[in-house]
Amino acid sequence: MATKLANSATDFLPAERTLETLRDAARSCKGCEIYKNATQTVFGEGLQNASVVFVGEQPGDQEDRQGHPFVGPAGRLLDKALAEARIPVSKFT
């Protein structure tokens, strides 16, 4: 039987929600089990006013080690899909 977490991610949300305050809050979040085996937070990267946002399920081991999103196998698959769709990656950074 699964045990209920004492906290949820909403318990860690700051009153003022800017990218910087959310990034800081994510570093100390213990609202789910992911933090127990992670070495660091992998927060999003890119343009603040982006038209499109890619969200991964959770960081893989390469993302956890490097601290950047989509740098492991899922990132290579995403890069391949973008290349096949002729969408330049530089458009997103």
Blueprint (SSEs and pairs):
Elements: H1 19-27, H2 61-66, H3 73-84
Oligomerization category of the chains in this entry: single chain
Number of strands: 0
Structural class: mainly alpha
Low confidence ranges: none
Q: What's the mean pLDDT score?
A: 86
Strand content is under 5%
The global form is globular
Please give the largest β-sheet.
none
Binned, the helix content reads: 25-40%
Distance between the termini: 44 Å
Give keywords:
single chain, 29% helix, 3 helices, mainly alpha, 0% strand, globular, 93 residues
Written overview of the protein:
Helix content is 29%, strand content 0%. The chain has helices at residues 19-27, 61-66, 73-84. The protein is built from three helices and no strands. The chain is mainly α and 93 residues long. The mean pLDDT is 86.
Briefly, what is this?
With 93 residues, this protein is an all-alpha fold. The chain is 29% helix and 0% strand.
